[in-house]
Each structure stands twice: as C-alpha cells, then as structure tokens.
C-alpha cells in the first residue's frame, strides 16, 4: 500500500513535531473548537518597539525632599549597585497597596516579597513618549476591532512599579475609572523598561478564566534594542510571577476611549474652521435664505452606497469635506449627507438600491401601428415634460455623462417600436431610480454650488437595466437648508 496522498501524490513528511501525531475525530473536533474559541476571544496583546537609540532612554524623578534625579537605561546587572540614583529610587518607593493578599492578610503569596511602587504624589517622567509610536493603533486594531469611526484611544501614565528579585504580585485589576474628560478606561498598557531579569512573567486572566502568559526573555540583554509592552482589556486581572533574578521595572498606562468629531448628540470636533472659509461662507448663506444648497464632496471614502446610508460617513469625513461640515455646524445649520444618482437625490434614510422595474422593455417587439403599453407612454411623457435643472449639471442625455457602462441597445426593425435610443436607454435607468425612491434634484428644490467634475467622489452600484447588468455612478453631496 502506497504512503502517498491520493490528493497531492506526495509522501507525508516524517519530520517535525506533528508527523507522528494521530487523533480521533472527537479529539480533532475539540481541538478545532478550542482553536476557534481562542482566536475569537482576544483580550491581551504584546509587542516590542524598536529603539535604535535605547541608550538615550532616561527616567527622571523627584523625591519628597525636592531633589531631582535621572536614571539612564538600560541597566546592567553587575553595575546596578553602583548607581546612586537607583538607590535613591528604591528608597523612595513604597509598598504597592494592591500587592497584599487581603484573603490571607499577609504580603505577597508563598512568602514572596511584595513589589514596590512609586508614590503617586511624586512626579516622574521618561524620555520615551508612547504617543510617538503606533502602539495605540495596534491596541485599537487588535483589542477593539469594532470600534466606531471617530472614536480614539489615548493613554495616561498610571504607575511605576519595581519587582526586585524574590518578589511577585497577586491577581489585581485596576478599578473602573474615567479620565478628567469623562472618558472610560478600557485597557491597560504595561511597558517594560530595559532592565535584565529572570522569571517575572506577566499573567493576564480574562473574566471567563482564560489565561495568557507573557515573557520577555531578551529583556535588557546585550543586543536587545527594543522596549517590550503588553496591553490587556480593563476587565482582566493581571499578576506578575516570581522574579528569580535581576529587577523588573515597568510603567503602566491607562487607556481611555473617547469619541471626537461631528458625530453624536454632543459633537466634540478637534478642528476649527479657518476664518477665511467662514468669511467666504457668510455672503453665500445671507443670499440663500429659504433655499436648499448642496456641495459635491471630494474625499475618497471606502464604502458601498448600496449597503450604507450616506449620513453614516459623517465620522469619516476628511479634508475640505470635514472643514465645511464643521463650518456649517458652527453656524447652527443641520447638514446632511445624501447619495446622488444621475441627477436624482436619495432620501436620507435609504441606501442606493436599484431594483429593476416591474415592466421591462428588454427585446419586446410590437406589431407595427400597435401602441406601446401605457406605463411606457406615461414614463416617456414624464421625461419629455421634465425641464433640465441647472442643479443637476447634466450636459445632455448621453450614457457617458451619467456614468453608465455596459449598456447595449437593440436594432431597429420595420415591425418594432423604437425603444433603443440613448434617450430611451437613459429613461429606462431613470425609471428604475425613481421607482426605488430617488427624487429629481430640481423637484427637491436643491441648488448645487459646485459642479460635478473629476474631483467629486464617485462610486459604482450594480443595476439591471434593459436586461443587462451594468454599473451606475453614485456621487455624494453635503446638503443643508438655510433658514
């Protein structure tokens, strides 16, 4: 019997840790279930920050006597006792109040020493700036993948902890707190300073009892030019295991979440429109009393108009679109985002869903001198009687101007009614747009202030028209009413 696989024709490799492993289907199912559970529940993440100039990392602190000291990093094991600043640092630290085991009433666990913490009333700082590195972006993408646009994370320095050889800590969770601006604490970041130590792994435990153990074996060793960090959710417990040798020093940061920008009931934008824009907007508003004005947006937004509402893009506005939106809000106006298709504006509560009309004129031939259906006649009369609107910026009825691609007509026959001209093809699409809830811009009383040029935002939505699957161009406008 051949050992080759019937699917690949290759012999299985006998090398590696998994070559001789065999398991039943039940064991495999349990392993897959365990794998999926771990994959879908991410409550902690770790990484390292490359620091080519790690030698320039300095800790500054001030004692209760008012004297300031500086401690350069990385620290070497054989020279730690020769640093006066380190001795002053350790003498000033106090016992961490959360390191006591309240159940046993004795410090630490298993007769281990308790860690030290820098007094909260004394200042300290480092030359390392967490905001200068993309750590918070990594934390957001891994721990908060469903974070809404316009929501940001920021970190506040919390504690400076020292774990000498022989010390450890019990499970501890930071109390639920809010920042000075009311932002809720959602995570914690622990930054390990470059000091060599052995043991002292960080153990993070989720509310469901899942555990993650983080070690940094290269921490503080020769050639290690990185600062190691660990982040975990605020509802997790953490503890530091027994430090066998050396000294573990770490700085913890509280991570808070706050919503900025124009979204929400209480907007809190970070930007302020320039005076030049505000001065140019005033005469336009003064001469447009009682009118609906619109501006084509020019930003590039990754969205599907057939799936999302236009107003859902407000937190993602950027460039001149964002400044204009904030300027209108500053004048107490109520701007809205709307989808626009072939000169038709969609309601604020509808995406661009183009379902084909009930009546389709695909390859329908009628005997000569036989009138077409009444629905076609009514639609044609409606289009012929509809005046062109300067607000729609249309330049004729050709297919290319409306962004429609993939259309094809049907040849004229002596026994066929003519339904295949550009005007009829355009009208067929217009019927589909109107039947799905859009309204022509001139009927909605909208005056566009900007032209539909190459700078305007464009997206494509599939549509079935005249029996052919095509794509229609969709634009995005900022609409506001001046009282």
Structural notes for this entry:
The chain has 483 residues and is an alpha+beta fold. It contains 7 helices and 23 strands. The strands form 5 sheets. Strands 1, 4, 7, 9, 10, 11, 14 and 16 form an 8-stranded antiparallel beta sheet that branches. Strands 17, 18, 19, 20, 21, 22 and 23 form a 7-stranded mixed beta sheet that branches.
Number of helices: 7
β-strand amount:
25-35%
Give the oligomeric state of the chains in this entry, treating copies of one chain as homo and distinct chains as hetero: single chain
Order of helices and strands: HEEEHEEEEEHEEEEEEEEHEHEEHHEEEE
Task: Write down the Rg.
Answer: 33 Å
Overall, the morphology is: elongated
Please outline the major beta sheet. 8 strands, antiparallel
What is the terminal-to-terminal distance? 86 Å
How many runs of DSSP E, i.e. beta strands? 23
Unreliable spans are 4-14, 100-109, 358-380, 382-424
Structural class: alpha+beta
Helix amount = 10-25%
Q: Give the overall average pLDDT.
A: 76
Layout of helices and strands, plus pairs?
Blueprint: H1 25-40, E1 44-50, E2 58-62, E3 68-72, H2 84-92, E4 94-95, E5 100-101, E6 106-107, E7 116-117, E8 124-126, H3 135-143, E9 151-164, E10 184-192, E11 197-199, E12 202-205, E13 211-214, E14 226-233, E15 237-240, E16 243-259, H4 275-286, E17 291-296, H5 320-330, E18 336-341, E19 344-345, H6 374-384, H7 422-435, E20 439-440, E21 446-448, E22 459-465, E23 468-482
Describe the structure concisely for a colleague:
The chain is an alpha+beta fold and 483 residues long. The protein has helices spanning 25-40, 84-92, 135-143, 275-286, 320-330, 374-384, 422-435, and strands at residues 44-50, 58-62, 68-72, 94-95, 100-101, 106-107, 116-117, 124-126, 151-164, 184-192, 197-199, 202-205, 211-214, 226-233, 237-240, 243-259, 291-296, 336-341, 344-345, 439-440, 446-448, 459-465, 468-482.
């Amino acid at each position: 019997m051949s050992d080759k696989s019937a699917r690949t024709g290759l012999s299985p490799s006998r090398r590696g840790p998994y070559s001789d492993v065999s398991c039943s289907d039940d064991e495999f199912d349990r392993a897959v279930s365990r794998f999926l559970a771990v994959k879908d529940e991410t409550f902690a993440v770790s990484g390292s920050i490359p620091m080519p100039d790690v030698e320039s990392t300095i800790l500054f602190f001030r004692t209760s006597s008012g004297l300031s000291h500086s401690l350069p990093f990385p620290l070497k094991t054989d020279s730690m006792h020769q640093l006066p600043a380190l001795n002053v640092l350790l003498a000033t630290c106090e016992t961490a109040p959360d390191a006591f085991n309240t159940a046993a009433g004795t410090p630490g666990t298993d007769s281990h020493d308790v860690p030290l913490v820098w007094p909260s009333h004394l200042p300290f700082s480092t030359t390392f700036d967490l905001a200068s590195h993309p750590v918070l972006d990594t934390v957001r993408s891994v721990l908060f993948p469903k974070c809404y646009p316009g929501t940001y994370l920021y970190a506040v320095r919390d504690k400076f902890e020292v774990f000498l050889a022989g010390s450890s800590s019990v499970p501890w969770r930071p109390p639920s707190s809010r920042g000075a601006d009311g932002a809720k604490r959602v995570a914690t970041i622990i930054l390990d300073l470059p000091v060599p130590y052995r043991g002292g792994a960080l153990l993070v435990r989720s509310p469901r009892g899942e555990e993650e153990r983080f070690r940094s074996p290269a921490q503080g060793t020769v050639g290690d030019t990185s600062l190691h960090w660990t982040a975990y959710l605020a509802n997790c417990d953490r503890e530091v295991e027994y430090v066998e040798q050396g000294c573990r020093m770490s700085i913890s940061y509280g991570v808070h979440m706050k919503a900025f920008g124009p979204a929400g009931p209480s907007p809190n934008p970070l930007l302020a429109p320039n005076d030049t824009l505000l001065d140019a907007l005033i005469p336009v508003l003064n001469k447009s009393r009682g009118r609906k004005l619109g501006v084509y947006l020019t930003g590039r937004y990754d969205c599907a108009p057939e799936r999302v509402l236009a107003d859902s893009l407000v937190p993602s506005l950027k460039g001149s679109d964002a400044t204009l939106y904030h300027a209108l809000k500053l004048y107490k106006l109520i701007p809205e985002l709307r989808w626009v298709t072939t000169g038709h504006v969609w309601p604020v509560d509808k995406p661009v869903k183009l379902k084909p009309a009930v009546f389709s004129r695909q390859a329908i031939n009628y005997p000569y001198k036989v009138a077409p259906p009444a629905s076609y006649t009514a639609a044609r009369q409606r289009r012929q009687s509809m005046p062109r609107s300067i607000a729609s910026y249309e330049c004729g009825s050709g297919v290319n101007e409306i962004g429609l691609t993939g259309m094809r007509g049907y040849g004229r026959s002596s026994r066929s009614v003519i339904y295949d001209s550009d005007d009829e093809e355009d009208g067929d699409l217009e019927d589909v747009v109107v039947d799905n809830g859009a309204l022509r811009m001139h009927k909605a009383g909208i005056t566009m202030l900007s032209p539909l040029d190459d700078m305007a935002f464009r997206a494509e939505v599939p549509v079935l028209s005249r029996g052919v699957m095509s794509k229609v161009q969709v634009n995005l406008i900022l609409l506001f009413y001046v009282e």
